[in-house]
Amino acid sequence: MINLYFSVHSNYKIMKRLSSIFSLGLVLLVISCGGGESAGIIYFDSAKTKKWKETIQLEGGIQQVIHYYESGKKRKEVHFSGPKLHGKYGTWYESGQVEAEKEYKDGFKEGLHKAYYDNGQLSSSKGFKDGRLEGESKYYYIDGKLWLEEVYSKGELSSHKRH
Fold first, then answer.
1. How far apart are CA 92 and CA 75, in angstroms?
2. How many CA atoms lie within 13 A of 11 on its CB side?
3. Which residues pair with 162 in a beta bridge?
4. Which tens digit of pLDDT belongs to each residue from 68-80?
5. I need a labelling partner for 104 at 20 to 30 A (CA). Which of 78, 113, 134, 157 fits?
6. 159: how many CB neighbours lie within 10 A of its CB?
7. CA dist., res. 79 & res. 54, Å (int)
8. Contact 64, 79 (CB under 8 A)
9. Is 161 helix (H, G, I), strand (E, B) or coil?
10. Pairing state of beta strands 122-129 and 132-140?
11. DSSP string, 1-57
């Protein structure tokens, strides 16, 4: 019985420590993505010649966070209001071609979200309102031909058509 107590007590201590480590990791992840971070630049190298991330304070309490490839080309640009995504969100392939264009409002997906193949062809186009799919969503083959159309109302699929 004593061995069982020590085993359970020891496992509890381990789980408590892991929970603390996980919580700290989650906080660091949120901070590293932006949201609540002070303005400044973080570099890939100690010589500070290659930007990795740049945080810019904009008007109205909005932060713009830009991530870069090691080559110096823009990788991702996001906007935050406090810890929440708010405003434009864009990603690029290292070639410079647009990968995705999105919009957020108070942490929720909003408006038209587009994704692109690395050849520049549109991959998908989806409408969002208050974080839920709304209106038409279209999906395309890599050659640009339409393969699926869906219509959503308040996040619920109301129709779909395969081509």
1. 5
2. 5
3. 148
4. 999 999 999 999 9
5. 157
6. 10
7. 12
8. yes
9. strand
10. antiparallel
11. -HHHHHHHHHHHHHHHHHHHHHHHHHHHHHHHTSSSPPSEEEESSTTS-SEEEEEEE
Of the chain, the end-to-end C-alpha distance in Å amounts to: 66
Three-state secondary-structure class, residue 144: coil
The contacts found for 116-124 with CB under 8 angstroms, 24 or more apart, are 117/142, 118/93
Q: Please give the single-letter amino acid code of residue 136.
A: E
31-85 residue pLDDT tens: 444 455 567 999 998 989 999 999 999 999 999 999 999 999 999 999 999 999 9
List phi, psi (to 5°) of 51: -70, 140
SS3 labels along 70-125: CCCCEEEEEEEECCEEEEEEEEECCCCCEEEEEEEECCEECEEEEEECCCCCEEEE
